[in-house]
């Protein structure tokens, strides 16, 4: 297989989708090893509730309990949100390739990178992906959050629940909408099929990108209504 790949690269050279240099022996689809190594982690300090980075450490002086202004104004339904990387540069390109090309084979290395670079400080009982509506699932062919969840579940040896949290109505893609529109778009869009499975449990919600937090908030609300004791949100990247 290694020889075949070298021969194919010689005949049809593959370039990195971010820097356009030759991919060569990179183990990562569509990205060279150098660009993969340049993924930007989220830099602290961050809000302990939503994970939003503060503009500077000095902001903590004016922040009761170190919470950001948005979380002080309206506490989110999830108890904590963690994001591993910044949605920019090579990581942004990798997520776009993964999600929209679509390139399922990026799911395993991306989830492995996410698991290696996050520190879970609370005990988790169940891992759950943010679900897609069945119509969107037919369009895309797979749920990127589910592939990431498989990797996280395996890395931390936490049970994975794939069909309890559902999206009960079709919604517009959040990427097309403003902040307020995002909240309205996903309001009441999620439900729990079997509340008994999450009752008094600590749940880790997994998705690819955290932008406004509206989707995570609605998922967490559905889980809390189903009896979940604690909901943590984990994303591969977030906008900053």
What does the model show?
This protein has 240 residues and is α/β, with parallel strands linked by helices. The protein folds into two domains: 1-38, no CATH class; 42-238, Rossmann fold. The chain is built from nine helices and six strands, in the order H-H-H-E-H-H-E-H-H-E-H-E-E-H-E. It has helices at residues 2-11, 33-37, 69-73, 89-100, 107-116, 134-140, 144-156, 179-186, 214-225, and strands spanning 80-86, 126-129, 165-167, 190-192, 202-210, 230-238. A four-stranded parallel β-sheet has the order 1-6-5-2. A two-stranded antiparallel ribbon has the order 3-4. Strand 5 (202-210), helix 9 (214-225) and strand 6 form a beta-alpha-beta unit. The longest helix is centred in the middle third of the chain and has 13 residues, at 144-156. The chain is globular, with a radius of gyration of 19 Å. It starts with a helix and ends with a strand. The model is unreliable at 7-13 (pLDDT under 50).
């Amino acid at each position: 297989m290694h020889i075949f790949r070298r021969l194919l690269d010689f005949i049809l050279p593959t370039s990195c989708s971010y820097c356009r240099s030759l991919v060569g022996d990179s183990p990562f689809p569509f990205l060279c090893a150098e660009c993969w190594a340049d993924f930007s982690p989220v830099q602290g300090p961050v809000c302990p509730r939503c994970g939003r980075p503060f503009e500077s450490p000095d902001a903590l002086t004016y922040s009761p309990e170190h919470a950001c202004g948005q979380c002080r104004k309206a506490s989110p339904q999830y108890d904590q949100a963690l994001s591993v990387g910044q949605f920019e540069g090579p990581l942004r390109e990798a997520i776009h390739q993964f999600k929209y090309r679509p390139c399922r084979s990026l799911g395993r290395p991306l989830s492995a990178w996410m698991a290696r670079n996050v520190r879970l400080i609370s005990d988790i009982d169940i891992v759950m992906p943010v679900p897609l509506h069945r119509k969107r699932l037919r369009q895309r062919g797979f749920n990127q959050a589910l592939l990431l969840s498989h990797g996280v579940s395996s890395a931390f040896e936490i049970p994975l629940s794939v069909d309890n949290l559902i999206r009960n109505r079709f919604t517009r893609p959040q990427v097309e909408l403003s902040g307020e529109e995002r909240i309205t778009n996903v309001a009441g869009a999620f439900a729990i099929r079997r509340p008994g499975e999450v009752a008094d449990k600590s749940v880790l919600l997994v998705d690819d990108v955290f932008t406004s937090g509206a989707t995570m908030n609605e998922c967490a609300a559905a889980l809390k209504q189903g009896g979940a004791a604690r909901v943590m949100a984990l994303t591969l990247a977030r906008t900053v």
